[in-house]
Amino acid sequence: MDSTENNKYVRLKRKIYLIIFPLLFITNASYWLFSPFVDHFMGLALPFLCLFFAIVWVLIYYNRLMRTCEIISLVVFGVYHLFRVYYLTAQLEEGIINVYVLWSPIYFVYIFMVLERKKALAYSLLILLITIVMGIPHLHNPRANDTLIQFYISTVLYTLILFYFQRIVSAYIESDMLRKNAYYDSLTDIGNRRAVDTWIENEIKRCNESSSVFSIIYFDIDHFKRINDEYGHDVGDYVLKEFSSLVKSYIRSSDFFGRWGGEEFIILTNRSLTESIQFSERLRIIIENHSFRYVDHVTASFGVSYFQPNDVPKTIVKRADQALYSAKNNGRNRVITV
Predict the structure, then answer these.
(1) Are 135 and 89 in contact (CB under 8 A)?
(2) Residue 55 — pLDDT band, cuts 50, 70, 90?
(3) Is 123 inside any structural domain?
(4) Are 192 and 259 in contact (CB under 8 A)?
(5) What is the dihedral sign for C-alpha 30, 35, 40, 42?
(6) Are 112 and 223 in the same domain?
(7) Which CDD domains match (predicted)?
(8) Which of 5, 36, 280, 302 has the fewest CB atoms inside 10 Å of its own CB, making it the most exposed?
(9) Which of 201, 263, 281, 288 is an active site residue?
(10) Residue 65 domain boundaries
């Protein structure tokens, strides 16, 4: 998992914690204050846990020491889990089914959220081994035997499911990253040429089947080489990113926007030719009036073509390219269609 995906995972965990810890606080506070089954140990543990949940939530809310909070919580929950299982095994001999049986799987879910997959498996099995040792003295009791065995088997199953589920998630993320790398431009985070080719083929197929139309808006940044030569390629890359972000904020959700290559971009839209020309003109003015961070102002030239019967990707793109070439030769910063 690269740093970008890792940051997304950390942000997702933070959102989960901000929801889960208040729920744990409310659940334990309610049990402490209103349950008639709170024993001496729980009477001491529950106030501490409620205070702990509150402190951890505040730290995570203000985005402070989140990793430290995770590790400390792992230890605190581990101690709590072992004590609850210890009392659970003793109560089984008396025929009492402790409700913690229902809650214990959550601890193992948390282990796999905090630790790397193999470490989480090893830690989970260690905790399970300790609980098995706790239960051995009670296995002779028929009332405790069956429940304990079921508890241990179910814990093993939870652990294995979590272990392989995390691998499935990792594989999905990896495949999603491969897909994104294959079809998205890493600099501008929009579709690359391969994606645009696919979009054009799909749009032509859709239009042939439904007798509808679409337009291609082919445009590039004027004098972009001059920007690279004068300011350097780092600034040139930043202009491309800012330019892409600006255009992306004005297209419709149904439009397709991709980088054709270098400073060249393509928009596929289901607008009519007239609407596409009008939109291109608005976009041209928006770009011209936008104050870019490092180069102040840039302009763009546009070529517009629309779908015609018997079109293939090469023909419709060629007409848009010819229109863009004409815009370049007629002074740039203009919209032309052929």
Answers:
(1) yes
(2) very high
(3) yes
(4) yes
(5) negative
(6) no
(7) GGDEF
(8) 36
(9) 263
(10) 3-182
